[in-house]
Every structure is written in structure tokens, then in C-alpha cells.
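Weekly structure sync, notes
Attendees: PL (lead), two postdocs, one rotation student
Agenda item 3: pending single-chain targets
PL asked that the sequence for the first pending target be pasted directly into the notes so everyone works from the same version. It is reproduced below exactly as submitted, 633 residues in total.
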Amino acid sequence: MNIKMQCCGMFLLIVIFIFYQKKSKINLNTEKAFLRIFFSIAAGLFFDILSMIVLHNIDKLSAFTVSFICKTYLTSLIVVAFFGLLYICSDIFIQKKLYEKRVTFYFGMLLTGIILVYLLPIYKNLDDPANAFTYGPSVLTTYVFCIAYFLITFYLLIRHKDKLNPRRRHAALSWMILWLVSAGIQFFDNKFLLVGYSSAIGVLIIYLSLENPETNIDRRTGLFTSGALVQYLRQIYGSNEDAALIDIVMTTPFVPNDREKDLLITHEIIEFATSISNALAFSGTEGKLSFVTKQKNYEALVELINDRFDQPWGPNKDYMISPNVICMPSVKVCKHADDIITCIIYARKNSIELAETGILTLDETIANQMYEEQLLEQMISDAITEDRIVVFYQPIYSVEEKRFVSAEALVRIIDAEGNIIPPGAFINTAEQNGMILKIGEMVFKKVCQFITSKYPENYGLKYIEVNLSTIQASYEFLADSFIEIMEWYNVDPSMINLEITESGSIYEKKLLLDNMNKLIEYGVNFSLDDFGTGNSNLNYVVDMPVELVKFDRDMIVSYFENGKAKYVMEAAMHMIHGLKLKIVSEGIETKEMLEAMEDLGISYIQGYYFSKPIPEDDFISFINDRNMLTAEG
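Predicted structure, written out during the meeting:
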């Protein structure tokens, strides 16, 4: 029975090998490790069958020959366990030096085990010729070393589970359990030689779970997948090698409304990609290709790609494709392999050069910009989580009443070291990643809490201005959220003035108007911020239900430095006054600027001439002192 099982196992390995060899492979370290397991198990099955044959014919062979073949089979089991351990190590220890250090130690164990197996005696049980088997110190040593390897493998699977591909971990555990159960049965009843067959089943499990080359091939294009690209880049990072990467994005469909021609062009592009002999081609989402080459002269590959895309495509050679191309001369400009795809996405999103020319060289400068932005995002996230979002207040002076009547709430972040981070350093990033909504909500809550706890109206303030970003203003549930917050803190809505800037799209403008109407109906007032910067214009003043218009600091500075700007601002001011709206001038820093604004008829003044933005307790002291002096005067 046993020899039949081993033969079935050998047949199974042959079938797996045939299918495995037919498919394209990337030459990953895990692929090499899998082949080592495969051939060691095949060798083990061969010597298992051979040992049974010689035991059945022991009377025809010398004792040395029989013992040598039986012990060779035993050593093959230790070799299988050794290569099984290396298979896991190839996924855990990507760094070449660390991997080699581990391998050296485990290989020392292997040599020790093999030497002991050959030196120690082995005994033969021939009571039942049909089920002959071996036993003794040599066999026991084999079990000890195999179990030692499997225990180390099991420890690494648990210890480094975060580094391992989950499917690889599950496949390896399944194989180990199957092997240990088979070994246990064989240990207690040597008539059942199950280890070789169970090892073949283990290879099948690993093949189906992980090492089937089909899993790395995109069925749509026949090229390697983006997942395979990540694995390949990780391997490059773990070695002393380097590589260049060319990432191409094309607009698809290539020929709208002509599916047949579009498919022909797609196939033509794929044929071109596979024809490049010195680079591996990977496909991503539709219309995306990546090439990786280890050749130092990567410019030749870039030139080859550019030359081909300068030529027409299609069966009639009448269609041109203009892709966006990102070239990474060295993938190691990124700190980690997993950062490369993220860095490419970042470059595509933020590069003006790529948008203008269609080609970009992604170097260390761009990678560092990405890392800096990631650090900033993490800082913002931590500040939100740890409630390190604070509000400073800048007083606003009424020219008519000669006192401070309001203030603008301005967000700040306190970093982990206690430093104050101004909004210019983080607002754009917060808007891009969506965290601005949470920041805006926290600021509004803190303003409402300030109003209910500090009673600013007792110091002569009529309202507090709160900035709304474009993303906030076009958030569908902004009005409902703000009304709920005001009701929670029992804030008089007339104490709130929300500052808006011009929205980009018609849809955003509609959402903004819906929010404004709900909040105005509730009792909140609005002002138009950043007038004069290009973000707000007179049409927006007419369209929006605002009561105040804020002249931006840059516009005020231009008024004093540029004669043309002076006439533009005066004309805009008269038109705004004609609409019965009040004007706030920001950025007033000198007495001369203040007097000039007063002469123009500006209603409210804001700027460093009076005060920079300050924390709420300092602000209350400032307002109390200044408004008290005004009242006494």
C-alpha cells in the first residue's frame, strides 16, 4: 500500500510541475524557495520509494547500500523541513544580510542533522515484507530535527505574522499540521509511511494558495499584476540591487464608441509591453502600465517607450495616444518599497510639470515632499485625537463706534512639543485629506463654548466670526450639524458670523446656498472673506446673502503700493456700499493705514496694528482693557 501512496504523491508533483512551468514568473525569492521545497519533496518521495524497494530486496543488496539509501531518505525529510523554514524566511527577512545570517544558522543545523543520521545506526523491520520499515537512533534523530525545524517555523509564523502574507501563513500552517499528523501516525505505527505523500499534498496546498503563477498575472492583459509589482519591489529593496520604474497612464477608452478598434489598440499596446526584453511589464487599472528594469541605462527604455508612443496605433495606424509618464531612475528614492506606489500617486496628483508636459522625473525631492506631507497629516490626525486644536482670536475694531465689536476665530494646532502651528502650514493638507471637516467642527464647538463660558457680549462684542473652508461650506449636513452644536451650548445664533469664500463648482455653490439659507433662518449671519484675492468677486457679492465683505490683506497692501489697485479698490468699495453692505479691512498694520481706511469709509478694521491673534484668555483681557478705556474716554 505504501509504495502506491508514494507513487501517487510523485504523480501529483509531476502534474503540479507541468502547470507551474507553463506560466510566466517574476523570479521572486519566494518562487525560488517554493521550487526548493518542491524538488526536495520530489527527491524525498524518490528515495522513499527507493528505500522500500531495497528493503523488499534486502537479500540481494549489501547492508551498506540498504542503510545508505534508507538514511538518504531520512536526510531528505530534514532537507524538506529546512527548505520549508527558508520558504517562510524569504517572506519575513526581506533584507538580504538578515536572511543570509538566518540561513547560515539553519544550514548549520541541517549539516549536523545529516551527519548524525548517517553516523547513527538504523534498524530494519522485515517481519511483514509488504510493509517493511526502519527504526532506531537514526530515525529518531530525523524526527527530532524535523520537529525542531517545524517549531522554529511555527514560532516565526506567530512572531512575524504582520510581515507575512496572510495566505502564506495559512498555507504554511496547513502544511505543517498535515505533516505533523502524518509524522505522528508514522512514528507510532511505522507500517504507515504517510510523510512523503502528505508532503506532496502540502506542496499542492502552497501551490494553489500562493505559488500558482496565475495569481500574479492579470487575466485581462496577460501582464503581471500590480500586486506582483509590489512583491517585486519589496524584493529589490531587500537586496543590494536597484531598479528604475516607468509608470504610464493612458486615457481609456482609446477609441470611444468603437469597441472593436479599442480592443485592437489595447492588444497592440500589450504586445509592445511584452516585447521589451530588458524590463518586466505590469498592468494596473485600465490604461495603466508599469515597467521595471534593473539596467543602469534606463534612459534607453524611456526613449523606446516615448518613440513608440510618438507613432500611431490601431489597425490603420491612425490613432495617437499621449500618455502621462512618470520616470523613477531609482526606486530607492523612497524609504520603503510599499511607499513607491503611494509616491507615484502623490506625484500624479500634485505635479504641475506632469500636467503641463506629460512627463515627470520622480526624484528624491518629490519623495521627500510626500514624506513631509505624510508627517503633517499624522500631526493633524494626532492633534485632532489628542484635542490639540486651539482657537486664537483677533479683535475687529469699529470705526463708527471707536471700539472693538467683534473678533475672528482663527485655528491653531499645538504640536507634540508644544509649538504653535499656524493655519497656513496645515489647512491645505487638511482640506486635501478631508480632515478639515473635523477641524472645522472642533473649532465651532470651541467658539460656542467660548461664548457661553466667557460671555464676550459683556465686554462689548456683538459676534464672533468663524471661517468656513470651501469643503465645509459644501458639506451637505453642515447647517444641521452647526445648529445642533449651537443648541447644545445654548448659543444665541446672532453671536455667530460665518465667513465664506467663493465655491468652485455650481454644485458646491448650491450646497453652500442651502446651508446658508438654513443657518440664516436660524439666526446666523454671513460675511464674504478674501475679497480681492481672486477667490471672491463682485458677482459673488451680489449672489450670496451676506452682510459683510472682508477686503483681503493683499488687496489692502496693493492699495498703498499700486495706483491702479487703488482705483479698483475704491470702485469696489463704492459698489459694495451701494449694496448696503459693511466692509472689513484686514491686514492693517500701521496708523497711516488705519487713517486711510477710515477716510475711505471702511466700517471695520482688523490687523496687527491693534493685535495679532491671541489665546482666548489674553483676548478677553485685551478687550476688557481696551473697551473699558474707550468707554471711560
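Discussion points:
- Residues 325 and 359 are 5 Å apart (CA to CA).
- The chain has three domains: 2-214, 217-362, 374-632.
Action: rotation student to compare against the earlier draft before next sync.
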